Amino acid sequence: MFPIRNTVPTRYPAVVTWSLILANCFVFFIQLGLRPGELEEFLFRFALIPARYFLPLVYGEVPFTLLDYLPFFTMMFLHSGWLHLIFNIWMLWLFGPTIEDRLGHGAYLAFYVVCGIAAAITHAVFNATSLVPALGASGAIAGVLGCYVRLFPLARVVVLVPIIFIPLFFEVPALVFVGIWAILQVLQGAAELLMPSNGGGVAWWAHIGGFLAGLTLGPVLRRPERTYRAYYPDEGILGFDPSGRP
User: Fold this and answer.
1) The pTM is what?
2) 230 occurs within a structural domain
3) How many structural domains compose the chain?
4) CB 16 within 8 Å of CB 110
5) Domain that holds residue 155
C-alpha cells in the first residue's frame, strides 16, 4: 500500500518542507562525492552510533561536549542510498506541506527537529550496544505522520496497491493508512527486541519514537483556526473538503 496523494489542501507555500528536502538532497550529494574512506569517516562523525553513549569504554571515546551529541541532529539529514532518500523525500513532500500549513513555518521547523531528535534518542536507547551508524530522515517524517493522523484522522489518503502487474487505487482514511504503518513498526520493533541483532537494518524504534513525538506535539503546536486566511474557491481538491474528507 503506497501513498500517492494527500487530499488535505494547504493555504500557504511549504517553504520549510522544500528547504528540508533540498537540505537532505544536498547532504546526500556530498556523501556521493566522498571516497569510501572519507565516507566512513563522515558517517563516523555525523551518523548516530549508540554505543558511543552507552558503552564509551568499548567504543573507545567518552563524549563530553555538546558537539559530541551533534549526531542526534545530523543523522536525520543522512541517507544510505537512493531508495532510502527517495522514499523519505516522497513521504515528506506528500504530508509535510499539510503539517507546515497548520503549524506555521517556525513551529513546523521546530516540530520536525524535535521529532527527529526524539527518534534518534529512542533508537539509541533500544540499540544501546550497537556500533552500526544510524541515519535517515524517517524518524522525523514519522513525526509528521503522527501529527497528520492526529489532526486529520478521517482525511482520505489515495494509495496504490499493486495486484500482480495491475495497479489499483483506493481512498483510505488516514487513521487506517497510518494505523497500519504504526502497527507494523511496533511489531517489527518488538521482533527486533526478541531476536539477537547488531542494530543494523531498519531503525524501527526511531520510527516509533518520532511517531509518538508527532502524535503528542501536533495539537499543542497547531495554530488557532482564526489565524488562517480563507480558502479561495479553486484551492480545494475536487471531491474533498478542507479536512480531506469526501
Assistant:
1) 0.90
2) no
3) 1
4) no
5) 2-219
